[in-house]
Amino acid sequence: MKPIVELSNIHETFERVAARYPHKAAVFYLGTAFSYAKINRLKDRFASGLLRQGLVPGDKIILYLPNSVHWVVAWLGALKAGLVVCPITPMYTPFDLQYIANDTGAKAVVCTDRNYGYVIRVMEATQLKTVVVSNMADLLPLYKRLFGWLFDKVPRGKAGQGGHSINLTKLLDSGTESVASHPAAPDDLAEILYTGGTTKHPKGVPITHRVVVERAHEQISTCASLFPLDENVILGSAPVFHILGQTTGLGTILVHGGTVILAPRVNLDALMDDVARHRVTTLIGVPTLFRMILEHDRLDLYDLSSLRYCFSGGDVLPQDLAERWQQKFKYPIYIGYGATETVGGVSMSPPDCDLPPGAMGKVMASKEIRIIDPLTMQSAPIGQAGEILVHSDPMVKEYWNKPEETAKAFIELDGKVFYRTADVVKIDEQGFLYFVDRTMDTIKHKGYRVSASEIESVLQDHAAVIAACVVGVPDDKVGERIKAFVVLKKDIKGVTGHDLTRFCRQRLAGYKVPQYIEFRDMLPKSKVGKLLRRELRAEEMSRLK
Length: 545
Known about the structure:
Blueprint: H1 10-20, E1 25-29, E2 32-35, H2 36-52, E3 60-64, H3 69-80, E4 84-87, H4 94-104, E5 108-112, H5 116-122, E6 130-134, H6 142-150, E7 165-167, H7 168-174, E8 189-195, E9 203-208, H8 209-220, E10 233-236, H9 243-255, E11 259-262, H10 268-278, E12 282-285, H11 287-294, E13 309-312, H12 319-329, E14 333-339, E15 344-348, E16 359-363, E17 367-372, E18 386-392, H13 403-409, E19 410-413, E20 416-427, E21 432-438, E22 442-445, E23 448-451, H14 452-460, E24 465-475, E25 479-488, H15 497-505, E26 516-519, H16 533-544
């Protein structure tokens, strides 16, 4: 049976899939199956409930949720109501939440009762008027909720009701299933995803309905030679508020009629039990996940034989990890390379050809690349390293509300717009791409892109700090660990690394907080006063040898 890829908006594309597979499980969440028909009904009720709250098409809504069926229902429902969705990690602090709410002008937010307090703290400083609050056990059968509460297995937080706040279940009860679908055109804005980089704050990447649907179809179809796409059962450990989780995981229920398994957090035993129980065919994750699986002391207690396609993205896959996986399971980890700005995969490794050691696949059909010398902007010869530029049609062409950053990252060559990835790669004569280095000050930690400038800015806000420089230190388990070099003011005494770490935790998401802090009398700078991060990183590299 052919996949459903007739071009329309996201919610109508999903509705066509739901009409074909009404009784099939679209989502498994904490052991409960949610059929396509049920997700479709909940999505309609959510859309209707939002409109009854006074929201109108074009309004922005923040999804401040972990991986869950709630996220899927809220995403699809908000899009059906004509809203623009702004998904963010639930690890964001009030500082990040307030910035993104103001950057987008969001009128509503969907959060859990665990981060409800953060939302309330920023409401007066933003345009947020409506707060939809959920508990992670909402939407589960009553007996599971009772069991979870009785044995204290369900995380709970305090949340107000009435006024600006409404419980998710009450919002759904207030809605109807007959709400008219907002007639969004394929090229209308669907969502704004936030990504790290070289700036103090996360940058918003505006993505249209068309790009989400087309890229999800293309990337999930890479494994079509291994099994029928409508029989694909995907365990998505990658967060769905991240482009990797959307295009390689969530996309299966948008265009192919497969099944996705979601959980609020990664628990290795639960993950491997899900693989065995639901006969999972596809596992999506960052390199850290695959290393954790290999090193798990109970690995051999689980039947993982159903897995046919294990895909690693978000960071470079170490060659030793790839070899250990191949030796253990007798099949490879397939690799991809991409970015939020390219809406996922620039290159992926197809199952029908052997991947050379260190390669990260071949360029996707939807992408055109150029590898250039970043100083001269001239094309680099085959086999020579250079910065990779990416073009596609359609494509993201700007950052949200950031004209200066847009001008730096999106350039025109020969009448086409290219995104400057700031990654150094090379390509061989067979068309395989190889990652070499990063040209900008971005750190890859556990698959996340972390801005060195953002962390430096937070450290320099501390009253005792006069200068700070942040670099990534290579680490086999997490990609890179974050290390900060700090210079304190001369009259300051008694400030420790613990003090600065605690200060950072109040302002940064957990994955952005430095693991190491080293105090120095001065930092290396160029003749024009620019911090020389490369010198500090080179020092750290020499220590590893």
